Amino acid sequence: MNQSVLSIGSSKDSGQKETDILLNKINSVEIPEELKQSCLAMLTRLEKMSEAGVYSREYDIIGNYINWIISFPWNGKAEEILDINRVRKVLNKNHYGLSVVKDRIAQYLAVRQLLFEKKDFKALDRSPIICMVGLQGIGKTTMAKSIAEALNRPFYRVSMGAIGSVLEIRGRDKAVEGAEPGQIIKAIIRTGVRNPVILLDELDKASGQTGLLADIMATMLEVLDPEQNTSFRDHYFDYPVDLSQVMFIVSANKVGTFSAALLDRLEVVRMPSYTDDEKQVIARDYLLPRVRESTGLNEDQLEFSADVWPLILRPLGFDSGIRSLQRTLENMARKAALEIVEQKIDKVTIDATNFQNYLPKY
């Protein structure tokens, strides 16, 4: 279809104007030539339908498809920083302890740095996928975010828990009403670059149905395997998309439900539970400043004495992670904020004598 057939403003009727708008969108961005020709053919068909006055539903389908196509960052790319000193600095800034895990990640990224410097991009693409395994609340998601920050890449989390269909990963045919791309393509579009860090979170909880789980694992293998992901075909796009520039990270509580073929592609990094001593430091130096900020308090308004930390670590017993500890601190800070506002006092100090008054009531 040439420009003269659908030139902007060439017709006064609304159908022509709408097709002109879509044509202008296609011509305003760089997309693969094959996709562009396919979109132009759709617009030609749409124009013919508009002349007959029966194009409204088709316009919605084609309009949505073109909007998704032009939203995909076909040429957008983040400038990656491969600097092992920067990686160490970011990991230590965001996480206390976990020295073994930090070392494993630093080793993994050091290999990537060497391969990049040698311009061995094939070996770089064949690098195994990091799979962080551990109980809830021990920092798998925040560790993945730290890796993205260290590499200067955008981060996006895809929740894999209880996926009801492979189509949620691979997308639905554009002819189906309400169809959209799958979660992988959406994640790339939302980051705006071809090389984001994408966390496939809780992959072990993808499905409890044996048959569906097998299908999901097969699809994940296609997404993660460099021999296959250079031409990943989303049902909605119906066009091979190269995923090899994406850095995927997998998280799971256990790997027993993973297929053998998928496990072969993963570099399993086991995340240990935090000790009470580690939790005290995390609560004091990492969590408390965030809690103060989120509740509108500062150091002069809310203080925790040194002797109170061991007393608030286990209000409900042992927890491998820090989520319950963070919730406890948030609850205590909110009660302190209420006292400051209602009683018009300047400061709340929580110590061993009064801490129980601020603990959440379960």
User: Shape, please?
Assistant: globular
**Can you tell me the CATH topology of the largest domain?**
Rossmann fold
Show unreliable segments. 1-12
User: Which oligomeric form is depicted?
Assistant: single chain
For the biggest sheet, the summary is: 5 strands, parallel
Describe this structure in words.
The structure is a single chain. Helices cover 47% and strands 10% of the residues. The chain has 13 helices and 9 strands. Strands 2-3-6-1-7 form a 5-stranded parallel beta sheet, with helices on both faces. Helix 1 (14-28) runs antiparallel to helix 2, helix 4 (84-94) runs antiparallel to helix 5 (99-117) and helix 4 packs antiparallel against helix 7. The longest helix is centred in the C-terminal third of the chain and has 21 residues, at 323-343. The protein is globular, with a radius of gyration of 26 Å.
Overview features:
362 residues; alpha/beta; Rossmann fold; Helicase, Ruva Protein, domain 3; 3 domains; 5-stranded parallel sheet; two-stranded antiparallel ribbon; 9 strands; 47% helix; 10% strand; disordered N terminus
What is the structure about, briefly put?
This protein is of the alpha/beta class and 362 residues long.
Sequence-ordered SSE layout with sheet pairings:
Layout (H helix, E strand, L loop, with lengths): L13 H15 L4 H20 L3 H16 L12 H11 L4 H19 L3 H5 L3 E5 L6 H12 L3 E5 L7 H4 L12 H9 L5 E5 L8 H15 L7 E3 L4 E3 L5 E6 L7 H4 L2 E5 L5 H19 L7 E3 L18 H21 L4 E3 L12
